[in-house]
Amino acid sequence: MLFCDYLTELKLEIHESGQTSKSPKLCGTNYPVCISFIVVNEFCERFSYYGMKAVLTLYFINYLQWDQNLSTAVYHAFSSLCYFTPVLGAIIADSWLGKFKTIVYLSVVYVLGHVVKSVGAIPSVGDSTIHIALSMVGLILIAFGTGGIKPCVAAFGGDQFDEEHINERRKFFSIFYMSINAGSVLSTVITPILRGNVQCFGSDCYALAFGVPAILMVIALVVFISGSGMYKKSPPEGNVLLDVCQCLGLAIKNRWMSSTYDPKRKHWLDWAEEKYPRRLIHEIKMVLKVLVLYIPLPMFWALFDQQGSRWTLQATRMNMAFMLNALLILIFVPIFDVVVYPLIGLCRINLTPLKKMAVGMIFAALAFGAATLVEVNVMKTVVEPAPHGQCLLQVYNLADSDVKLSIPGSNLFSQPIKSYEDPQAYQHLELGGHNKTITVGINHSGHFHECRETFTEQKAYSLVLHSKTSGIVCQLVSLKFKYCSNRFINTRSEAVNVTIGGVDFYIPADYGISPNKSANNVHIAWQIPQYALMTAGEVMFSITGIEFSYSQAPANMKSVLQAGWLLTVAFGNVIVLIVAEGAGLDQWMEFLLFAGLLVAVCIIFSIMAYFYTYVDPGELDKLFPDKTVNEDEDDLKKDQTDDTMYLNSVEKGPKM
């Protein structure tokens, strides 16, 4: 066992609650030992969350038998709920339970959600209605669990550091962020393998794929509770978010009910001065300026979160599937920090946070442009499956003259099919159930023949017709519809071998048909450019946005802006939900639409950013040294605040 007994020190901490506890340090550093429990907890929790999401869309399509649009809509509705619930978690932690108890209790809810979700993926547990009900209940519990603890875990980790250890706290957040992506990388690789390579209940093992994240969440909870005796546990101090909302409500109410005889106010928020201190009102003004900039941001997240839905579906129609974003994040973050940004600085380009975010939007739009090109090429090699109750059918006429088909209850193939003519596109054949045996009538040179074949829903078939002395011979061949496949028919009297794209085909003689094999399909590597562009956009947009929000918020308002930032993610998923259900476009056109919308939003954001002036929240202590300032003493300062809060007092012009 490794033990830094000669370097570990114990320090007594007296909390506001009056309790004293020991806070051991890691090997003589200023890092509390308890942060290791928090980092491991976050790694396991993110593994649990992203591992479940990695197969969620495929679970909807393959197990619950939903179509792609409904699957995408529910996926983004779930993602959206996960980013609405942090507001609830912040309120519970700040005004009722405190961060520690909130994390523990909501983690239990989180575990229950995973368990319910796993049970819903067991085929023998009820019918499809039960499976859907359990899946939805599980997802709702998971959304409340992961969303509720989201605003608490990182802040709770930051609380463990002494005020003088600023650098250590900053490095902790970097380690914390890396643990998030490390968990994501492993989960998005391991969970799909468990689903596809492990068979249970006679098919892909979704129960195991969801069960492993449940186990990881249990481990996360146990690890977090194990450090309980070492944590600093600050009691709840009231919710600033509620104070902000109440102040806004009072200002709006007083402004609405004011008469023309009332004194004018310089700002509409000043109507709340009768009840709330001017410092709080001024802090809310600062926050509102940033929140206005947040208005265009959901469009970025509308594109970003489609990596787990539309892009995953695109990958399944190629010849393999792999999630790259989390892996690329681990590579791109240090590259941007150590190489890209310093090089830009050497070129004397003033790349402010808002400029970085605008460039990140452009990268995301380019990523969807690349996804559009991939989608166009994928569609050339893909046969889309028929809906439930139907199958796909095409006819190859290898007879010596034209034939005409008649299918009972259908008008398909009403025109004669010429000999050796390229077959028509696949036609949708109604079955009215899971499978159906159909007698196909064939008119050849005035002679009538019949072929009795059984068709199964959602499969693709080729009906091959050729002549023999006894008449027309029918061969029904089922095909893979996931992507274009190669199959050869040999009309010669001897067997032949064909090699194409490095794939060998043996074709028996006398109208023998080769096995169905794939060759020269669109490779998954063509998705790398779109993932690289999107990850670059994430680094410049997401990480910079969090930094910008933190730097522009007063100390007691940072949770308010964090809640606002998370809400932009939620509304981004709502946008995808609306488009997926309402647009009805081909997938490549939908990708192009999103790219165009983000470019338009980026232009609007850039204009808004140009007129934004950076502020220094530290100036608040100079303007309001006693936190709450008497009204009579503050009149002069109130008039000065709009002109003294700039980071750069010399350059007065608005800067992006």
Q: What do these coordinates show?
A:
- By secondary structure, the protein is of the alpha+beta class.
- The chain has four domains: 27-235, MFS general substrate transporter like domains (Growth Hormone, Chain: A, Up-down Bundle), CATH 1.20.1250; 242-276, no CATH class; 296-381 and 520-626, Growth Hormone, Chain: A (Up-down Bundle), CATH 1.20.1250.20; 390-482.
- It is 54% helix and 12% strand.
- It contains 18 helices and 15 strands.
- The chain has a four-stranded mixed beta sheet with strand order 7-5-10-11, with no helix packed on it. Strands 6-8-9 form a three-stranded antiparallel beta sheet, with no helix packed on it.
- Helix 2 (56-63) crosses helix 3, helix 4 packs antiparallel against helix 5 (128-159) and helix 12 (325-346) crosses helix 14 (528-552).
- The radius of gyration is 31 Å and the shape is elongated.
Query: How many structural domains can be distinguished in the coordinates?
Result: 4
Evaluate the radius of gyration. Answer: 31 Å
Distance between the termini: 54 Å
Order of strands across the biggest sheet? 7-5-10-11
Report the CATH topology name of the largest domain: Growth Hormone, Chain: A
Low-confidence stretches: 1-21, 628-655
Please, what is the average pLDDT?
A: 81
Oligomer: single chain
Give the CATH class of the largest domain.
Mainly Alpha
Q: Architecture of the largest domain, CATH level 2?
A: Up-down Bundle
The DSSP helix count reads 18
* Structural shape: elongated
Number of strands: 15
Approximate strand percentage:
5-15%
CATH superfamily of the largest domain: MFS general substrate transporter like domains
What is the helix content?
Answer: 40-55%
- Largest sheet at a glance? 4 strands, mixed
Pfam families: PTR2
Main location: membrane
GO molecular function: oligopeptide transmembrane transporter activity; symporter activity
Transmembrane segments: 73-92, 104-126, 132-153, 174-194, 206-225, 286-304, 324-346, 358-379, 560-579, 591-612
